Amino acid sequence: MPRLRTYFARQTELPDVSNYAGDAQPFASGSEGHTDSDFFPVGAAAASLATAYLKSLLYGVSSRDPRTIAASCALLIVVALAASWLPARRAISVDPMQGLRNE
Question: Mean per-residue pLDDT for 46-71?
Fold first, then answer.
């Protein structure tokens, strides 16, 4: 019976969010002496090469087809909503007082 109680106690544990609450050092953009604008040409060149490569993979679809872009955006939104909804639903099922007691 104690093992079963330990198993269920572990199921209600909440993740430690102290690292996300400001306890950790913030990320400094220019900490290594580079700014974001230093990498803009690299990103633009990579995007240009990726566009040329992806254009060669497309068959019967333009790279600027609005329906394809809209469908891709819709799929990305659905995946993002599912990825955020499932953990939120799990967190809602935990009683707040039980979570505080476990800390």
Answer: 84
Determine contact, residues 55/63, Cβ cutoff 8 Å. Answer: yes
Quote the pTM value: 0.44
Mean pLDDT of all residues belonging to the chain: 76
Neighbours of 12 (CB within 10 A): 13
Where are the chain's structural domains? 64-91
Tokens coding 34: 């580079």
The predicted-structure confidence for 9-53, as pLDDT tens digits, reads as follows 555 555 555 555 554 555 555 556 667 777 888 888 998 888 888
- Closest of 7, 2, 4, 14 to residue 95, by C-alpha: 14
Residue 103: which residues within 8 A CB-CB, separation 6 or more? 14
DSSP structural state of residue 34:
-
Q: Which residue has the tokens 């002496």?
A: 33
Rounded distance between C-alpha atoms, residue 9 and residue 22, angstroms: 28
